[in-house]
Amino acid sequence: MANEDSIQAAPHTTAKLAAEFFGTFLLVLGGVGTAVFSASFPDSENPLGVGFLGVAIAFGLTVLIGVYAVGHISGGHFNPAVTLGVVLSGRMPWKDVPGYWIAQLVGGALASTVIYAIAAGGADGFLDNAVESGFASNGYDELSPGGFNLISVIVAEVVLTAVFLYVILGATSGRGPAGFAGIAIGCTLTLIHLISIPISNTSVNPARSLAAAIYGGPEALGQVWVFFVAPLLGALIAGLTYKVFFEKVIEENR
């Protein structure tokens, strides 16, 4: 008789959605929370905080931890763009997409609500300053950390999301090194943030963008559409072309 631990049933849909909810909650709590509380501490004039580098590492760490914690249950997407890229590459059915997207959006929104609640108990003016500064929201023009325009932001978000999806699809391929996907994915997300925090404050994830914009004010909410359209477009490109660019080459070289 086989060992009981070696017989594992496929995860139930509820477990998958719970995993996506938790993973997205963790990503927003860790990444946006670091940006709100620790990027400039105590303030921008006398910074002792972690800065752009620390925020980039925080986002990378959250996705790395989430992948190893619950990735085996749901695939570890934590991002509507990743889910779209995965389904377009043929690795999951379309029927699972609505549930994944809802779980991701709700998980992110709950995490930013927790961050808001904690910030409300800060020193006088802390919450107001966090909201006035955009609550780590994404943006272009005046809402871009470096003042980059809409075109620059769209190009960056599309290209970097596509790169992120290529790495995810490659690292999780059956031909990839077993057990190392989380490291590759986490490091890639860190690199993406190092490139694009000054450009757009880095999205590549509609759930993360909406979560921050909820408390970032009307201007942030008015620009959040970009951070749905651009990442989903990048995921569309990667999801449709991954097999053409990579798996076809592998098959031809056999």
UniProtKB/TrEMBL annotation:
InterPro entries: Aquaporin-like, Aquaporin_transptr, MIP, MIP_CS. Keywords: Membrane, Transmembrane, Transmembrane helix, Transport. CDD domains: MIP. One of its GO terms (cellular component) is membrane. This is Aquaporin Z. The chain crosses the membrane at residues 21-42, 48-70, 99-119, 147-168, 180-200, 220-245. The keyword DNA damage does not apply. It is a multi-pass membrane protein. One of its GO terms (molecular function) is channel activity. Coiled coil: none annotated.
